[in-house]
């Protein structure tokens, strides 16, 4: 998956300060390996750049139980270590992540928490009879 977020124009009340939004490029790839009927393992890589800041890569691995529960870990090239946990219920996905900085930033913060909520659009939608 290649993601190219759209650059959104902005207006500012204080015209003396200038700020620009840089286009971000994300490339994500991975594969789910079935270990048995209940367990799968899913390694993946996320590559990120703006061409105006340092290139960043995340190396990830998730263990998945019955396609409903998952536990994973990530390593980011700037030294961050991330723990992930989540679950799926029907089309809904819920997750939690803790990002621990190992760089100089760790002197100023103990880590960050992230909550995730998602909805998977079903792919087997009945499209009805073709009109053409």
Please give a handful of descriptors for the protein shown.
132 residues; mainly beta; nine-stranded antiparallel beta sheet; globular
**CA distance, first residue to last residue:** 31 Å
* Class derived from helix and strand content: mainly beta
* Beta-strand residue percentage: over 45%
Number of strands: 9
Low-confidence stretches: none
State mean pLDDT (0 to 100 scale): 84
Task: Give the overall silhouette.
Answer: globular
- H and E string: EEEEEEEEE
Which value, in Å, is the CA radius of gyration? 19 Å
Please estimate the helix content: under 10%
> In total, how many domains does the architecture comprise?
1
Please work out how many helical segments DSSP would assign.
0
- Largest sheet, described in full? 9 strands, antiparallel
């Amino acid at each position: 998956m290649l993601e190219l977020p759209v650059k959104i124009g902005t207006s500012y009340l204080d015209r003396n300060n200038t700020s620009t939004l840089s286009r971000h490029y994300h490339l994500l790839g991975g594969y789910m390996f079935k270990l048995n009927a209940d367990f799968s393992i899913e390694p993946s890589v996320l590559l990120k750049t703006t061409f105006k800041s340092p290139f960043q890569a995340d190396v990830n691995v998730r263990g998945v139980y019955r396609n409903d529960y998952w536990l994973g870990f990530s390593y980011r090239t700037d030294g961050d270590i991330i723990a992930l946990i989540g679950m799926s219920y029907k089309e809904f996905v819920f997750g939690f992540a803790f990002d621990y900085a190992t760089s100089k930033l760790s002197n100023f913060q103990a880590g960050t928490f992230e909550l995730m909520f998602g909805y998977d659009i079903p792919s087997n939608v009945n499209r009805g009879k073709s009109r053409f």
